[in-house]
Amino acid sequence: MPLGERYGGDKSESRYCGVEADFDDDVPSLLSYSLRGGFDFIVVSLMDPSYRPSLLNDEARRSHSLPFAGSDLVLSPAQWSCNVVGLISSWIDLDSEDETLRNDSAIALKQEIAWASHLSLQACILPTPKGSSCANYAKCVNQILQSLGGMQLWLRIPLMTEDNTDASDIDYEVSLQLDSWELWNSFRTLCEHHSQLSVALDIMSSLPTPASVGRWFGEPVRAAILSTDSFLTNARGYPCLSKRHQSLITSFFHHSVQIILSGEQFHTAPVVSSGPNKDDLNDGVTHPLKSYLSYIAFLYQKMDPLPEQERFEV
């Protein structure tokens, strides 16, 4: 359910909080579990991560059913549209030096986005470009955008690309020759500033300078993916955020940016039946990221309302 109500009847998209989940063949159970746990939508891979087009022979390509996460009939059209955001496979690398990987990436990217469009998803999150050059990746995405329909594509960009970024993680193998904004600017320029291309910012434990952060508020940021390892631990053992992270999340709320929680549970403090999302406790459901969600809801509800002029401008 939404994070809560605030003074002034705020109805912005930032009221909704999602959760990133691993690939699962049983999407209905995954969605039900997350919704009962208090989240509003799930971000989930649509294709089995082990799938590679080059591993199929010609006969298998003609007869093989692609390893999607279930049939399009397992959820209602409204559920697909309102409660699921597609996560395009992170292994995709259209600018790799490996020709086989490039070809597999191009095929898989088109297949996954076509499937997401068929499901009438509102948005899909594209993987972060892997290196300093993203020309082929952007070219392929731009071609897809020309006939995409109404679905949005959110390019996943790490807010922090300095040396302390975990370069071993495939999702963050971004060249240090480009800062995050330059990476985004290069990609969207190659995509001709298409209106259906936006940003999903990855927020980690370290933040860049305030000037670098502020630059993003002039960009079409649709989601902030907040890693659980960004959270500190308060005196009672519950997760909390640093002052800078709190300020950043609050600013995102004011700009209608939705928060997506991602990662493992690092805090084991018991969940109490308080806050806007306590109904799930009656069902015996305790989502592992419930305490993080409750903290995000707390930040949302304690915000001061924007002045009327600023609300109008936003």
UniProtKB/TrEMBL annotation:
Please give the GO cellular component terms listed in this UniProt entry: cytosol; nucleus
State if S-adenosyl-L-methionine is listed as a keyword: yes
- Cite the Gene3D superfamilies for this sequence: Divalent-metal-dependent TIM barrel enzymes
GO biological process terms, alphabetically, are: regulation of DNA-templated transcription
Question: Where does the PRMT5 TIM barrel domain lie?
Answer: 38-302
- Tell whether S-adenosyl-L-methionine is among the UniProt keywords: yes
InterPro entries the record matches = Arg_MeTrfase, PRMT5_TIM
Query: Which of UniProt's keywords are assigned here?
Result: S-adenosyl-L-methionine
Q: Which GO terms describe its molecular function?
A: protein-arginine N-methyltransferase activity
Instruction: List, alphabetically, the PANTHER family matched.
Output: PROTEIN ARGININE N-METHYLTRANSFERASE 5 (PTHR10738)
Q: What is this protein called?
A: PRMT5 TIM barrel domain-containing protein
